[in-house]
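Supplementary Methods, section 5.1.

A reviewer requested that the exact input to the structure prediction be made available. We therefore reproduce it here, unchanged from the version used in the analyses.
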Amino acid sequence: MSYDEDLELRILAVVDDWPGTAAKKMFGGVCHLLHGNMFCGVWRDYLILRLGEAGAQGALERPGTKAFDVTGRPMKGWVMVEKGRRAGGAELRGWLEQARAFVATLSPK
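The structure derived from this sequence is encoded token-by-token as follows.
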């Protein structure tokens, strides 16, 4: 199954000007990295975000989110956001900025 290329274009419109970012195809989708650390991506029609354990816990209280689990073992600190819950550009930007803020606390790879 392919990934939501429209979502990928919308992500690029936000993160393309951020210093230190790169895109990489992974797990049948695409991920975005900040200084070598993944911070977001697209898997099928989900937006995936690395928010850290505390950030993910808070995000999971919002409708349309669930733990990032594509193998039967959820990834701690990551969430998946359903297509219908990220329609607005400001909302997408907010998610991406939250992920960037968390990953900026990590050591570059």
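Strands lie at 21-26, 29-34, 37-43, 46-50, 65-67, 78-81. These observations are discussed further in the main text.
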